[in-house]
Amino acid sequence: MNETVRKTGSLMMALLVLFSTMSFSMDMHFCGDSLVDFKFYQKAETCGMSMDMPMRDMVSDDMEMHCCSDVEVVLTGQDDLQLSIDQFSFEQQTFILAYTFAYIYLFDKVDEQPIPFKEYSPPILIKDVQILDQTFLI
In the sheet where 68-75 sits, what is the strand order? Predict the structure, then answer.
């Protein structure tokens, strides 16, 4: 259960970073009130009813220029997430290096302490002192 929650949280954070840094644009062409063309990352094609440039000059300001309109929606992502090692000061680099080495060696396997008398045999019992003195642990 805990492993599943950790993996789900990691995936959600990765997707959050991906979608917050991604940018895209949409281009829409309307003819009147109806949508004629809709494109991602490209210029939308016109319906062919837009007026030529010389006719626009002849039309007075009171008249409507044409019935078509272009709408462009641009969603820009964040650009401040791109950190490089050049932006860190020397003290910050030293701290990161020391912290990394301390963290790595924190989990280093500790060797077992040698037992100096491991190779020696125990002394030979001549008399069993507990039986002779009648002392028993209860």
Answer: 34-40, 24-31, 68-75
